[in-house]
Write a structure and sequence with these properties.
Number of helices of chain A: 0
Helix content of chain B: under 10%
Order of helices and strands of chain B: EEEEEEEEEEE
Radius of gyration of chain A: 13 Å
Largest sheet of chain A: 6 strands, mixed
Number of strands of chain A: 11
Oligomer: heterodimer
Shape of chain A: globular
Largest sheet of chain B: 7 strands, mixed
Distance between the termini of chain A: 37 Å
Shape of chain B: globular
Strand content of chain A: over 45%
Chain lengths: ~110, ~110
């Protein structure tokens, strides 16, 4: 069963614009992670945010976590065509494996 | 390190045949996961191992599916007999405790 649900399911933007993807989950978590998947490839880890953190940055990525609303957002600034991919949030509870959402498909056109 | 290695990358088989998917995790990773990805159901956790011991196999669809990890460097996922609804991309991933997952490139299975 899915724990995290991403929104929107699909997003199309122009190069240089910012892309924001949201993730909602249902139960308490230890941490929340974001992954990226290029077409036909495996998932690649982007960033991990722990339940006691509110915001984290990595390069052009910014992740926020609101445990009171059980939601997270991933912001990609100044997007590039190479950012075209599917993005997944994944959550884990204590002693459990990561459960993934269905993902947001991002298309960045030049 | 070479990363997580899966084989075969593509498998086409006929209904009723046995399918064996293989995975070599990253050396030193204690955890190994098998996931299945389809358009309809997304990425589903099938089973995961800690130090070669299966911890949670509640995601294994039915008795036709079995997974083993005979040592720290090798795992198999077997489907016998295979059915068309088993068609999917099967991913293996490994990690350290509470760490990020490293995924293989997946095995795309088509059952005719």
């Amino acid at each position: 069963s899915q724990q995290g649900e991403e929104d929107p399911q699909a997003l199309s933007i122009q190069e240089g614009e910012n892309a924001t993807m949201n993730c909602s989950y249902k139960t308490s978590i230890n941490n929340l992670q974001w992954y990226r998947q290029n077409s036909g490839r495996g998932l690649v880890h982007l960033i991990l945010i722990r339940s006691n953190e509110r915001e984290k940055h990595s390069g052009r990525l910014r992740v926020t976590l609101d445990t009171s609303k059980k939601s997270s957002s991933l912001l990609i600034t100044a997007s590039r065509a190479a950012d075209t991919a599917s993005y997944f949030c994944a959550t884990s509870q204590a002693g459990t494996a990561l459960i993934f959402g269905k993902g947001t498909t991002l298309s960045v056109s030049s | 390190d070479a990363g997580v290695i899966q084989s075969p990358r593509h498998e086409v088989t006929e209904m009723g045949q046995e399918v064996t998917l293989r995975c070599k995790p990253i050396s030193g990773h204690d955890y190994l996961f098998w996931y299945r990805q389809t358009m309809m159901r997304g990425l589903e956790l099938l089973i995961y191992f800690n130090n070669n011991v299966p911890i949670d196999d509640s995601g294994m669809p039915e008795d036709r599916f079995s997974a083993k990890m005979p040592n720290a460097s090798f795992s198999t996922l077997k489907i016998q007999p295979s059915e068309p609804r088993d068609s999917a991309v099967y991913f293996c991933a490994s990690s350290r405790p509470a760490g990020e997952l490293f995924f293989g490139e997946g095995s795309r299975l088509t059952v005719l």
